[in-house]
Design a protein that fits this description.
The protein is of the alpha/beta class. It has helices at 52-60, 79-89, 132-135, 149-161, 164-167, 181-190, 201-207, and strands spanning 2-12, 22-28, 48-51, 66-70, 93-98, 112-116, 141-146, 169-174, 196-197. It has one domain (2-207): Aldolase class I (TIM Barrel). The chain is built from 7 helices and 9 strands. Strand 8 (169-174), helix 6 (181-190) and strand 9 (196-197) form a beta-alpha-beta unit. The radius of gyration is 17 Å and the shape is globular. Bound molecules: iron/sulfur cluster.
């Protein structure tokens, strides 16, 4: 079974509760959305088809138990379910970054789903597949990229309406260049949100100016 892969690379996980952990990233090609802030537009079309066993061999070159399946939108390619299952069988800690616009019903329950619910200012409002609320499990995390005050209020309403704060980890990330980390931190405190502020650690590490070794 082949999957169209944009890139496979080894780095520090910048998001989710696995933040900071050395991880192998498998980025699939193709996305059904076009978010205004997308920083992986190169993944829309570029990539090569690879056999699942070759993808696993590439992952195994790295000495970490963490694998993150990301995109694009990984769930657009059916064989991805099989790859995730095989990785879980090999005892990898697998996370899946998805917009949640496609059903997660058949994702292996050992996988940590990180559902990036699209806010109004993402440009992909209403893309979330609401049935996914039923398929979330104790590993699932919900992420919201906040671009504005309206996005913040919308996310708070969504979480409270669906009881997400009580049941899951909820991550709020500032959209780069639209709201600042400090603004979002203050909003979370002011509004007594139960979300967790998430800064994209990988951007802080790799895009910051070197301050010595
Ligand atoms: S879902 Fe992700 S990859 Fe797709 S357009 Fe939005 S930010 Fe980009």
């Amino acid at each position: 079974m082949m999957i169209k892969i944009n890139e496979i690379f080894y780095s520090i996980q910048g998001e989710s509760t696995y933040v900071g952990v050395p991880t192998v990233f498998v980025r699939t090609t193709g996305c059904n959305l076009r978010c205004t802030y997308c920083d992986t537009t190169y993944s829309y079309y570029e990539g090569d088809f690879k056999e699942i066993e070759d993808i696993i061999k590439e992952i195994q070159k790295h000495r970490t138990p963490y694998v993150c399946i990301t995109g694009g939108e990984p769930l657009l390619q059916k064989p991805i379910y099989n790859l995730m299952k095989q990785l879980c069988d090999l005892e990898y800690k697998v996370s899946l970054e998805t917009s949640g616009s496609k059903s997660i019903q058949f994702v292996d329950p050992r996988v940590k789903n990180i559902l990036d619910v699209k806010t109004p200012d993402s440009g992909a409002r209403n893309s979330f597949h609401m049935e996914n609320l039923k398929f979330a499990n104790s590993l699932t995390e919900f992420k919201f990229v906040i671009c504005s005050e309206e996005d913040f209020d919308w996310s708070e309403n969504f979480c409270r309406q669906h009881d997400l704060f009580q049941k899951y980890t909820v991550l709020y990330s500032p959209s780069h260049g639209k709201v600042s980390e400090r603004w979002l931190a203050q909003k979370i405190l002011e509004k007594n949100s139960v979300s967790r502020l998430q800064l994209q650690l990988h951007k802080i590490i790799w895009e910051s100016t070197a301050r010595g070794v």
